[in-house]
Fold each of these.
Amino acid sequence: MDSLLKHMVDMTGHRDHTMLDISVISAVQELAGAAQTRVFSIATVRGQQFIRSRAIINSGSPARMEAHSDHHGASAPILVCSELKACLARHDTLAERIGADGARTLWLPIWIGDKADTCLEIVHPIPFSSDTLHVIKGIVSVYRNFQNLLDYSERDSLTGLLNRKTFDDQLAKMLQAASHADMPLAQERRHPVSTEKQWLAVIDVDHFKLVNDKFGHLYGDEVLILIANLLQSSFRAQDRVFRFGGEEFVVLLRSTSLDNARRIIERFRSNVAKYDFPQVGNVTVSVGFVSICVSDAPVAILGHADQALYYAKSHGRNQTCHYDELVSSGLLATVASNDTAEFF
Ligand SMILES: Nc1nc2c(ncn2[C@@H]2O[C@H](COP(=O)(O)OP(=O)(O)OP(=O)(O)O)[C@@H](O)[C@H]2O)c(=O)[nH]1
């Protein structure tokens, strides 16, 4: 019982999804005496379900995060766990596979509302006793509630998008991980190591004050919600969309080429321009984007994207501008300061 309480205190002491994952698999592993415990994400891409391992613990070893770049490998079609696929289709909470040697693999999807995008997997050489199963289910319930709470604190209440604080955390983590690992971030702006990079786009609704003034704040709010929906449907599952504040949004685009980044951003911009907003009619957005360099400070990366956005705003709006192109064509100037570049 002491051990269970210790794990509960540990799990609920975290303010971070990764640490919560690590503590839940450590708790399950110890309390169930499992051979292996894993937590993975379940994502649907073009109608197909995939699983992606997030953290794992093997008997006798410490728990660890599953390190992988955001784009390549690491995902497996859910068909490798056919029992889990069937369980998800039934909206059920438990699936089991019995191996030829009698070993059990247990899957416990974490349902939040009618969505399960996280699952625990426990491998055990023999069947679990009903008491152990009861404890595991209890841990899963605490994990689900706490994940729900963390999710709530990371999101903007109007649009449901990730909020500014989450953006700050995720960009800092992305830069930190890239500086320790061989991730496809540009090392230096003039010498990219790969044609695939991470990108940051800042999006601002054009003349949004006019929408509020003419139609009122409720219609203004509805426009923001509909733009958030268009953002989520226009970008890919591995990209991250944030509401930065007011009528400004930020997208982190993962591992793609300049041409792809531009095409995806332009697809979104034109989706907004074509959309018939109830009552309000036509709304447009301007976008500034930049490649993320591991050597740049977050404030400099945002500053560059903002400069490109400002250029788009002051040259007609309803357009996408790429920071590096503006600089190389002489339309924006940079001044080298101590360790970053600044603009005037
Ligand atoms: N309805 C609504 N309005 C908001 C919200 N947050 C910020 N705003 C409004 O967004 C407007 C932003 O106006 P400005 O910064 O002047 O920019 P703009 O009118 O979009 O003009 P440009 O950016 O130059 O195209 C202000 O009127 C804010 O009150 C919100 O959550 N809901």
Note: The first strand starts at residue 36 and ends at 45.
Amino acid sequence: MNAIESRLEQRGVTLKRFDTPLQQAEQLAAAVVERLNMAIAERGQASLALSGGRSPVRFLDALARQAIDWSRVRLTLVDERWVPESDAQSNAALLRSRLAAVFPRLQWLPLYRGVTPAADAAQVDAQLADWLPLDLVVLGMGVDGHTASLFPHAEGVAEWLNGNCDAGCVASRAADGTPRLTLTGRALHSARFRLLAISGDAKLRTLCTAVEADQPARWPISAFVQAPMDIYYCPEDGQPDDAPV
Ligand SMILES: O=C1O[C@H](COP(=O)(O)O)[C@@H](O)[C@H](O)[C@H]1O
């Protein structure tokens, strides 16, 4: 076992390595469905929060192929760019297009509402309260160590990373200052299970640094790398040909 695996083991987290992006995507989709089916069997429905960005395309395509009672699944995002779905940056648009085969059957809670970032976050927060604890959260991570839209050293981030944060959804900003909406520690820590998907050497190095440093305000991902969580890692960061750029 190498250094990162043993560090993660101390936190009760398992790192699963995959040789190809396709294997990683398919195994991640299978793990999601297993968790959703467990929740449906126990409580009659399942709640899921997914990440956006560039990385999840293959995973979303694999998820859309899964046979599960999608009408019992409540879906939201862990974060959103404050843009309408017509914008290429929209995480909601990514989910709607890659999950097109199952999307009409899901119960969908969008983050962007088009009022103001703060008003949208307050509206989502009120609706999300009924969904907590989420059954499953699938996180991604940027090379800078951000996860969801919880960015290093952002104003408010130390509080938002905390499980006792007042709100489950807040208005945040990306490193370039653009407005975002993000779930906070209140929603992400209380999830019954978390999966983290990362690809490429650079992200694995970030994860190692984040876990080693354990300074959540600098490396927001480190706040969530704790049980219950599995990490799905592939050294290759390949996107399918039809992935949005
Ligand atoms: O801004 C975002 O970044 C992270 C990582 O995105 P990726 O493009 O490197 O995959 C993502 O998890 C988050 O949902 C997204 O809005």
Note: Helices lie at 3-10, 21-43, 57-64, 91-98, 117-128, 157-160, 185-189, 201-213.
